[in-house]
Amino acid sequence: MLLAVDWDAQRLRIVHAAVRRGKVRIDKMLSVDFPPDLDQSDSAAMGGLLREVLNRLKIRTRRVLLDVPRDQALLTTLNLPAASPDEMPALVEFQIAKELPFSLSEAIVDFAMPEETTPEGKMDVLVGTVRRDVVAFYERTCEAAGLVPERLGLRPYANKVAVNELIGRHQPGCTMMVDVGPRLTEIDVISNGRLAFSRAASVAVGPMTPLAGGEHDAGEEGGEREHSASSIIRFPQAQEASADPIDRVVDALVVEVTRSFEAFRAQGLQHSLDRVIVGGDVGVEARLAEALSRRLRTQADLYNPAQCFEWPEERGREARAYAAALGLVCGHGDAGRLHFDFLHPKKAVTVTARRLRKLPAVAAAVTLFVVAGVGFYMTSVAPKQQALAKTKQEIEDVNDEIKDLKQYDERTLEPVKQFESEQVVWIDELNRLMTLLPGNEDAMLTRIDMYQKGGRINLTIECRQTEVAMETVNRIDEYRLPGSDSPHFDATAKTFSTRTSGGRYQSSGSIEVQVLGVPDA
After folding, report:
1. How far apart are CA 187 and CA 261, in angstroms?
2. Neighbours of 322 (CB within 10 A)
3. Mapping DSSP to helix (H, G, I), strand (E, B) and coil, where does residue 284 land?
4. Is the CATH number of domain 2-220+241-333 3.40.1390.20?
5. Mean pLDDT within 36-61
6. Confidence class of residue 261 from pLDDT cuts 50, 70 and 90?
7. The model scores a pTM over 0.70
8. What pLDDT, on the 0 to 100 scale, is given for residue 367?
9. Can you tell me whether residue 152 is helix, strand or coil?
10. Which residues, in sequence order, are CB contacts of 69 under 8 Å at separation 6+?
11. Is residue 222 pLDDT above 90, yes or no?
């Protein structure tokens, strides 16, 4: 038995389940409103509340699964050379260090291993980064509650698992999961079973119409949910009698969902939406599903996991807000898949360790040989000399093996170095260009566009005279890196137009700069 615990700004949710041989059986589900005076940033207070709830329900299970919400994690998709699960952690750590806004030493990094490679032999790896103090908060909360943390997952990924269990793990197409919360709404796009996009939208929602039920046993038809007399989140009163507060919330959520889908489409990954699934228990979910269906012109349904666990339809409706908690449990039951776990992030396995895994017989033989040598030494001088000679030969063989392993290790790093050399460090290139541009008396830079493909930079500029732009192009073309005789940039002046009206800058146009040596791929 184990627990899955998930919460938002208003409510604590607990799932008590049994996982055996990959099969999940839900025993209990419970939601409890937070007391108005509870400080959710206080791990001792959160752990004390959780301990009190479990004691009241007489739940003795200590193993617990938790998740980090989207607003507390950085998500990055890295396109990396194809590698084995043992080699991928080193590649991820090497590349993600350049993407983080803070030091890698302050973070815990984990990733979801992709199931397939691209035609170019690379992998799109979803990487999650969480600050160490966030992970420490969950560990202290579990300690205060008397629980043993089994896994700390990622909430959007748990939602992805729940959706895949609902529609089919390998169901093709694009699905959007909208998990509505009282302060933050998580919006996840699942493309062909893979989490392709995720963001948290800040839309304040107060208590509307709470769901019926809350705590229930998997074998019973109903049950009572604990519900406090007041909630710390309240929706502001309408300013006009004709204004419907639910409509205002739904309109705001529709805008955020639409904005999120457009941001996803801008990545060029998917251009059509097959379905929308809406979860949550703040009371606007049904209206939101209808509005999204009209706005996005697609099927929109409320999250209902009844068919996943062979529940009655009514019980599935009561579990509308439990997608993340149920996803944690279902993901934990699927031990063959590599999910996020910030308590036990994936670590690189050295080449030597992998080779030693494959040579248990050799290791056993060496051990037996050493024991036999000691025995011969104790009985006679001749066996001792023979054992010593064999031991020296064994040492030489081991040294040869170590040398081969070092050479193999060096060869495996070459793809990483080559991948690094293909990347454009935009901050360095822009710094070099800024030293080559004229001052504000002669020109003004109005826009910069950068393109990874081919390493191109487009500078939109206004000049006092067209000659200023030509001089700038020449300076850029003549730039050399220290110690290099080859040009670093190739600059071309695009069409410049001249204004007859007054003003300091009479000429405007653009200069296209290409960083030489960057492959056009």
Report:
1. 9
2. 26
3. coil
4. no
5. 94
6. very high
7. no
8. 65
9. strand
10. 8, 155, 184, 186, 200
11. no
Q: For the purposes of burial, counting CB atoms within 10 Å of the CB of 105, is it exposed (0-12), middle (13-18) or buried (19 or more)?
A: exposed
Q: Can you name the residues that pair with 185 across neighbouring β-strands?
A: 201
pLDDT at 231 over 50: no
Cα angle, residue 92 at apex, residues 89 and 96 outer, rounded to 5°: 145
What CATH superfamily classification does 426-515 receive?
Answer: General secretion pathway protein M, EpsM (3.30.1360.100)
- The three state secondary structure string of 470-492 is HHHHHHHHHCECCCCCCECEEEE
Question: Residue for token digits 């108005």?
Answer: 36
Pair of tokens at residue 371 = 């024991």
Token pair in block for residue 211: 């769901």
Q: What is the predicted pLDDT for the residue at 455?
A: 86
Judging by beta carbons within 10 Å of its beta carbon (0-12, 13-18, 19+), is residue 345 exposed, middle or buried? Answer: buried
Do the domains 426-515 and 2-220+241-333 match in fold? Answer: no
State whether residue 47 is helix, strand or coil.
Answer: helix
Phi/psi at 364 (5° precision): -65, -40
What are the extents of the domains in the chain?
Answer: 2-220+241-333, 351-416, 426-515
pLDDT, one tens digit per residue, over 158-177 is: 999 999 999 987 778 899 99
Q: For residues 463 and 484, what is the distance between their CA atoms, to the nearest angstrom?
A: 31
Q: What would the two tokens of residue 417 be?
A: 């170095």
